[in-house]
């Protein structure tokens, strides 16, 4: 008897609902300063869980993401990782902040697979650690490509003193040495501690050198601190480029009263219904439809764990019910032409992330309409 597709999916969903769950462990900052991002990623993974369970789960078993809270603390993330390594699980999604990922990585040196959701780590080739999303170095390159095409030759930067800030500083120092960026001058870089509540002195120094654009690559609450400082200094006419870590709609809505006129993010095409091929566009529409079904408008950060988790699920479906960490590692290392919502993945380049600058899109947040729009083509350029 031939079943209609919708009936087949309904019966499949009913069958796996009674099966033992296939647990995938996730470590996220669900409390502490990084909770804005961690809770948003938790929400995105729960939506993906529902989508994938309607598609049969893994080997007839319902997928269940098991969340642990690292409290935005490297020490806690290490404790949690130690426990997961002891359980001999094949793969862990962990974490979404670079400081936590770096603290955890040594524990995963021989497995299980650690799929970090932060782009701001750079795992060694062939290691058991993978980094989600586009490399922060590639996002930096896209930002500067965009600045060149906008005619912004005087660039200033406000950065934090933590691991994310250090990675940001190193990425821009490297990018500024490239021949194509010789016409751009980094007129000043100021730093502040992520726990600081006032950055007026730093902003005053930045304003004095008359930049044409300010890069604020700090995630979460420190970004709000910087924007409030800009409002207090009368700097809201200065264009800002920030990190994709702040592409959280609910977060940005809270900043409306002190949001600059022009705010850009080195982001992703799925925010504005863009994709590099038809299969990737199909994935984007699946994501967008799932958000709508969950009662959400487009929220970019909800989507950031989507591809890493989908790739892990793809590996587990192909490898049988009890794969080893080595098998999961080898499967991902050889995965290519995989259409995700962020880009087209090819892990054979040894990058441990499978994406390049070509997958980046500069996206603008409109403070008046509370919506996203494309500000560049793929790669960051305007032309």
Describe the structure.
The chain is α/β, with parallel strands linked by helices and 383 residues long. It folds into 2 domains: 5-133 and 275-358, Response regulator (Rossmann fold, 3-Layer(aba) Sandwich); 136-272 and 360-374, 3-Layer(aba) Sandwich (Rossmann fold). It has 13 helices and 14 strands. A 7-stranded mixed β-sheet has the order 7-6-8-9-10-13-14, sandwiched between helices. It has a 5-stranded parallel β-sheet with strand order 2-1-3-4-5, with helices on both faces. A two-stranded antiparallel sheet has the order 11-12. α3 (74-86) packs across α4 and α5 packs across α6 (163-175). The longest helix has 20 residues, at 35-54. It is globular and about 60 Å long. The N and C termini lie far apart (54 Å). The mean pLDDT is 92.
Can you tag this structure with a few keywords?
383 residues; alpha/beta; Rossmann fold; 2 domains; 7-stranded mixed β-sheet; 5-stranded parallel β-sheet; 13 helices; 19% strand; globular
The CATH topology of the largest domain corresponds to Rossmann fold
Which whole number gives the mean pLDDT?
Answer: 92
Helix content: 25-40%
- Global Rg: 21 Å
Order of helices and strands: HEHEHEHEEHEHEHEHEHEHHHHEEEE
